[in-house]
Amino acid sequence: MAPYDSDSSEGEDNDFTETNVLLGYASADANGEEISRLGGRPDWIDPKNPPSSALARCNVCKDMLVLLLQLNAELPDRFPGHERRLYIFSCRRKSCRRKEGSTRVIRGVRISPDAPPAGSKENKPAKEAPPAPKASSQGIGEALFGVKPAAASIPRANPFATSSSPAAAVNPFAPKTAQPAANPFSAPQQQQQPAPEPASPEPDAAKDLPKTFAETLSLNNPQPHGPPPPAEPWPEESAQPEPYPVRWLSDAEYETLEPVTMPNLPAQKMEIDTSDAGGSAGGKEDKEVFESSMDATFQKFADRVGENPDQCIRYEFAGQPLLYSKTDKVGALLHVAGEGNVKVTTSGSKGFPRCGNCGAGRVFEVQLAPHAIEELEIDEDGLDGMDWGTVIIGVCEKDCQQRGVVAGEAGYVEEWAGVQWEELTAKR
Ligand SMILES: [Zn+2]
Ligand SMILES: [Zn+2]
């Protein structure tokens, strides 16, 4: 799947092998990035139409959560006409740590009226797409983290900008900013919607419609079915917990790994000591590696992250998350015995739970890496900060829209967040 696995055994002369995982790096400098960042307060796709605040409350203490990550997750090839953003939230209270529901994720989506319908050929996810060549990789990186369309239209000093702009021009879906501006309906529709009216016409309308396959499927879904509860307004900012400082994800590049010098050795311990691998990682990762040296899954995690120690997020839609543990609750759910892999989509009792909005399967999209904690807590003293190892996000593979939200309007759907907590002590 990832190219480095097959390439590494051939003993090529390449210094580094590139994987399909896009890494995001944080900086205090926005560098033109306007959306993707750690910390701050959420910028909703439609600021006039935020999600219900109920989606951003801690399920443990019911307090408002704070933003860890806001990501521009548009995938114009896979979901043309979809504006997409992911928002990962976490509870500030120490008493909520290690408790389910203290970390949540919202997927914001606005689907253009011109977008091809879900399930059409163009919209079908390419399951095993070959590794993207360099040029288009650049484009994906830009779409995800970096260059905004406004910026893209202005030639910059970046030598890659010119090479990628012809592709962007050919792609009819690329100029995404044109969509909201060109869409004459989005604003009027906003006003037409009677927001304060508690009883919306949705229940009647839903009765008149035949059930789709997805809706029928979702009847078997344990999550609540039917019209969503009335949206809860957001409290004043002064009544919300203090946000983390903004750290822009202004730099993104595909993960590169050092060539494997000693392939197929079952024990990976020696790799930690090689002079180059993770040489700039600082002491923390190394220390953790030794403390948990019996845990091969953790060691693989530490080795892999240690090769690019400043990574804050790892992104690959429908790819493989890097597990911090395969024995905790999240690891047990996602890990497939004998494969060394995780289920990338819902299947039976394994893999991500199905989408609670449409019943489709979920796939991996992004995970937070430990260095994100250092960036988020850069202003904080002490060692009593967040203590997760990684936060893994699974999203609807169809990028469905919130029920009752029409084309051209922004909707918000809760997705699946799995937290793998830092191990307090090495296992055995
Ligand atoms: Zn809480
Ligand atoms: Zn869905």
TrEMBL record:
Q: Which residues form the Programmed cell death protein 2 C-terminal domain?
A: 295-421
InterPro entries hit by this protein: PDCD2_C (IPR007320)
What's any GO biological process attached to this entry? Answer: maturation of SSU-rRNA
Listed GO CC annotations: cytoplasm
Could you tell me where the Pro residues compositional bias lies?
Answer: 224-233
Q: Which PANTHER family does the record match to this protein?
A: 20S RRNA ACCUMULATION PROTEIN 4 (PTHR47524)
Q: Name one Pfam family in it.
A: PDCD2_C
Low complexity bias locations: 178-194
Region (Disordered) residue spans: 110-139, 160-242
This chain belongs to the protein called: Programmed cell death protein 2
